[in-house]
Amino acid sequence: MIDTDRITGAAKELGGKIQGAVGDLTGSHRDSAEGRFREAQGAAENVYGQAKDTVRHAADRAQDYAGQASGRAQDYADQAQDYAEDAYERGSHYLRRGTRQVSHQVAEYPLASLVIAGLVGFGLGLLVNANRD
């Protein structure tokens, strides 16, 4: 979208050129000077409009880049969430599987399981008492 200052500036610049040329042809120093002044005003307004267009374009590009970065961040967050859900499901699966295996071993070898549990308890007791000294 072109800024209206560019359009009106270009029109004033053209009108000033015409007025200056007519003043030069007729020998009117007043029209010539006034035309050159209007031409300079129009050129300045045109440059101002171009600067506004440039700033608007830069702001639009920055907004586009921010939107793209936001989209990528959301994609990464979604991937991280998917990874965490998969890890949770795998952990739950291995916990259930391990619990079944331990239950099976305890049911099949109750005396050995009792001895192992006693040894683990004795070892933990030693560790706890070792920290108190």
Overview of this structure, please?
Helices cover 95% and strands 0% of the residues. The protein has 133 residues and is an all-alpha fold. The protein has one domain.
**Mean pLDDT figure:** 90
Tally of separate domains: 1
Q: From N to C, what is the helix and strand string?
A: HHH
How far is it from the N-terminal to the C-terminal residue, by CA? 81 Å
Main sheet summary: none
Task: Supply the key terms.
CsbD-like domain-containing protein; transmembrane helix; 0% strand; membrane; mainly alpha; 133 residues; 3 helices
Short overview:
The protein is mainly α and 133 residues long. It has three helices and no strands.
Write the layout of secondary structure elements.
Elements (H helix, E strand, L loop, with lengths): L3 H23 L2 H80 L1 H23 L1
